[in-house]
Write a structure and sequence with these properties.
Two copies of one chain form a homodimer. The first copy, chain A, has 308 residues and is α/β, with parallel strands linked by helices. The first copy, chain A, folds into two domains: 3-89 and 276-293, Rossmann fold (3-Layer(aba) Sandwich); 93-268, NAD(P)-binding Rossmann-like Domain (Rossmann fold), CATH 3.40.50.720. The first copy, chain A, contains nine helices and twelve strands. The first copy, chain A, has helices at 12-15, 18-25, 90-109, 112-115, 142-153, 176-184, 229-238, 259-262, 278-293; strands at 3-6, 31-33, 43-46, 63-66, 84-85, 134-138, 157-162, 172-175, 189-192, 216-220, 241-246, 266-268. In chain A, the strands form two sheets. A seven-stranded parallel sheet of chain A has the order 8-7-6-9-10-11-12, sandwiched between helices. A five-stranded parallel sheet of chain A has the order 2-1-3-4-5, covered by helices on one side. In chain A, helix 2 crosses helix 9 (278-293) and helix 3 packs across helix 5 (142-153). Chain A is elongated, with a radius of gyration of 21 Å. Chains A and B meet through helix 3 and helix 4 of A and helix 3 and helix 4 of B.
């Protein structure tokens, strides 16, 4: 009977019912514990907030299963040599798609002028159709791909960009450095859903923020570090960027007095675009344990060289 | 060569280029005029704003082709005995879907609390997933059906209601009087897209507004008369209805000082949810002329008994 160490004590309340249920439903009989002699642990369920930082003594551990989609705070840990799996929670993708599509339509339709309209102006400015609105999604991983596809299904003129070439039906796919400039040029809405790596830091900077159409909107539900904050604020001040709706920040919660709180062209959402739901995340964890015990390949294995 | 009277002079500027082009592209050779001896007119292109009100002298007219989707201001005209066709403009449907899906996601995600957040509160209230959000669409005509289907594709738990029974994949379809009560009961977002007829007036009234979940949202991009305004304002005051986002009103533009402008739980959008675009509407008109001249059935013929 495999021993599973739940090494994210602050999340135990959320998972105490969901995990045993999911393991049972996956047909896995396991010993789920909150503490254990490291040498006896077969699987570690993990979050970056966990006190466990030295993986060296976990000599028989077959996999570290992250409860978080982002693993940038884990991959740098040199003691973690065991196979590491990211969380790819279908409910997380659903929530992300809802946030991205919702805020894309909000800006596309110009809703803010109706939500806040103290002068009670009746101005019949009919927005263009989605098919006339170029939207660029940076990052075509699990989340970026899902968002791009739903936006395209809503008729938006979607361009997707990824580091390595990809092909997606109904989406203009670009890749590489030159492709990035091309993907941003003329975009009216830019969505950043890249993983956080040393290469993706400050993808939106003074130079790249000059490429979209004047007054373009930036939506960042990805990672705070994808954007050079000073460059974005400067572009908002000149009107080159018309609005930024940001869900993630370099330091969270966003501190009181941060320029993003003050700026009239910035909307802050408090890191809610995609939240892992315990019930569905527990099913992903249980399925990976089941697979490994049955001799099948682990799902969502992190590529250490790429960092995600 | 058929003679087509363009009887909506205030719209001529929009259509003067689009109509000849669309007729040409449909292979129709016609005489498009702004004035004519009534007895010589084969087709009338019409809008309710037109000065032409007496159709009696148009003895040879084969069809009256409306530039508007709604024909409630036309069907009551007893002199109009010629076949009457509504406008079913694909771009109108697209625009409507964008408005309905956008405002549904806005309320679903609780965006307003982030768009207007003067205290800079960082409150991580994660919304439920769309699959947990019951949305009811009243009316399953061209527009209601399209909206219901896209909302269902975004995973919303969609109930559709129509006067006569309909079946739509992925949507719980109800009909008739009893079905209306069932469709509204427990709904968290209600979208009204019924045609305006004597039967649909005040569909949302004191009694029916009590049925949705407490704090439910009403979206009305259909017709102003579908809602009993006093009953809606009362339900907003008690909190039974949490918010109303209204695009259409009994009298437009909505007059200054109207309670809807003042109410903190009402968003007014200035009849922009669906706008007929001249280029695509002209193609619909041209196609109907082409069909009738070729002996084919007219599209979008109004059923006088039903009134739409």
């Amino acid at each position: 009977m495999p021993k599973i160490l739940f090494a994210a004590p602050d999340l135990w309340d959320e998972y105490r019912d969901a995990l045993p249920l999911a393991l049972h439903q996956a047909g896995v009989v396991a010993d789920l514990v909150l503490e254990a002699d490291p040498e006896t642990v077969d699987y570690i369920i993990y979050a970056p907030s966990a006190p466990l930082q030295d993986f060296t003594p976990y000599t028989r551990t077959k996999a570290v299963l992250s409860l978080w989609a982002g693993v940038e705070r884990i991959v740098g840990n040199a003691t973690l040599t065991q196979p590491l799996c990211r969380m790819v929670d279908p409910s997380l993708t659903e929530g992300m798609v809802e946030w991205v599509v919702g805020h894309t339509l909000r800006h596309h339709l110009g809703m803010d002028a109706h939500i806040v309209n103290p002068a009670h102006r009746w101005e019949q400015i009919v927005p263009p159709l989605a098919r006339e609105r170029p939207v660029t999604v940076l990052g075509l991983g699990e989340l970026g791909r899902a968002c791009a596809q739903v936006l395209a299904a809503l008729n938006f003129a979607v361009t997707g960009w990824s580091r390595t070439p990809k092909t997606l039906a109904g989406i203009r796919c670009l890749s590489g450095e030159g492709g990035l400039r091309q993907a941003l040029t003329g975009a009216q809405i830019v969505v950043t859903l890249l993983p956080r790596t040393t290469q993706t830091e400050n993808t939106l900077n003074a130079e790249t923020l000059a490429l979209p159409a004047r007054g373009a909107v930036v939506l960042n539900p990805g990672r705070g570090a994808l954007i050079d904050d000073a460059a974005l604020l400067a572009a908002l001040d000149t009107g080159q960027i018309g609005h930024a709706t940001l869900d993630v920040f370099r330091v969270e919660p966003l501190f009181a007095g941060h320029p993003y709180w003050q700026h009239p062209r910035v909307t802050v959402t408090p890191h809610i675009a995609a939240d892992t739901r315990a019930s569905s995340a527990a099913r992903v964890i249980a399925e990976n344990v089941r697979r490994h015990e049955a001799g099948e390949a682990l799902l969502h294995l992190v590529d250490r060289a790429r960092g995600y």
